[in-house]
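Chain A, query sequence.
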Amino acid sequence: MASQVPQLPTPSQKLLRVMFVCKANSCRSQMAEGFGLNISKPFGAELEVVSCGLAAHDSINQTAVAVMKDAGIDISSHYSKSINSFVPSDFDVVISMCGCSATLPEEWQKRPIFRDWNLDDPPALVDSEPAVFERVRDEIRVLVQALIEEVSAAS
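Chain A, predicted structure.
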């Protein structure tokens, strides 16, 4: 029997649910969630956007909060969430922010759309200056916008 290509749900069927995952859910995935929640509106995309980490962190990185504020997006009320708080089958799109697909449970990688963006982790870099956070933030913005355009066109 031939395998079927997963079809994305149309907005009339249900919201398309997007999960951004990284190691601690304190920086990259939080920025992606912020962009996802804000960028999807102009496209009229019917998305529910969430982020989580393989392990929850104590708090959101404050430099990430600041550089997102500079981009006009407030993530100061976000908090770190563990992947264990979610069920993979509840999501249509799963994006690994950090190359963590090697440690991401397999059921998360089998969603209709799975991508591993493998972005730098600003807090972990030696030159962890605001400019590094800004560069990664801008990379995330481009990737999130392209993802939203893709799923909006497919639905």
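The radius of gyration is 15 Å. The chain has a mean pLDDT of 86.
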